[in-house]
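Exam revision sheet. Question 4 asks you to relate a sequence to its structure. Input first:
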Amino acid sequence: MIRLQNFLQEGSAAIIVTDIGRLYFTGFKSSLGYLAVSRNKATLFLDGRYYLAANMSVKACEVALISDISSQLNEFFKAEKVKKILTEKDITLTEFSYISKMLKDFSVEASDEMLEFIDCLRAVKSEWEIECIKKAQSIAEKALDKTLPLIKEGVTEKEIAAFLEYQMSILGSERPSFETIVVAGKKSAMPHGVPDDNKIKNGDFVTIDFGAVYNGYHSDMTRTFAVGSCSGKMKEVYNLVLEANLAAEKAVIKGAKCSLVDKAARDVIENGGYGKYFTHSTGHSLGLEIHEVPSLSPKSDQVLSVGNIVTDEPGIYIDSEFGVRIEDMLLVTENGVLNLTNYPKKLVVLNN
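Answer key, structure tokens:
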């Protein structure tokens, strides 16, 4: 909160209305609320559903019960001698219009500068945030271990996805990080394929892309398994993707250009003759949302900083045959990189 207050110019203030924004700055989760911030004061306005809980737990600012939010916000900003109020850039047009009408005596602005500032704040994870992501990842890995015995011929993608999400839930995940991807056989060539009644067959690759959420923080990992048997071409492609994954991991260091990390993975796949089958960026950051900045893409001009957490997920997708993706989460440290994914990456043939 202090960093946001220090960012504000004299005579300006901020209003945070997104669920993610309120959670990030206050540590309190709610489906509705208004966080008003000036250089000298911050107040979280919540309704009766959340007020008591927030009043006991929120330390970053004052907490106030909503009675007449329009009057309360106007009083707050007038008392703080505010002229300009900055909103989050990613609010909806309806939200911006509503706020502007409520605060018609002030200049309300959706600020690119504040968006960039908040993105930069959230990109560098605190120790507490890192521990939450580690916990989410631990839940995901334990759930995958419990799911592997289910993956066999005749079982559907939907059954595997449902069982995996159930296991994450009972292990402590608040919800899946995103819609779990389980794709098998020819469907494994679809990077974001949707699980359906497609049944696993011996000789299939099964790609599983999933994550857990703990204290609002997301994990994300992908593993590809062979079922029953694995052809020579499948082994070749798998090992090439693994080599690309390891090359990107080696390139993730403080000060590295994100585009060069992507290039490290992409060069391996291109040199192996499968460049046209790697159809997406190498990775993205994550935290309170599954996609944050920075991004490991060919066009990115961003540079990695200590505290960034990025995914490392190269893949090869051969239409009408099969696909392979291997994904880890990497933490940029002062001395290099720490892989937060503690799950084996060597090719595994299940039920062999």
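Marking note for examiners. The longest strand covers residues 221-227.
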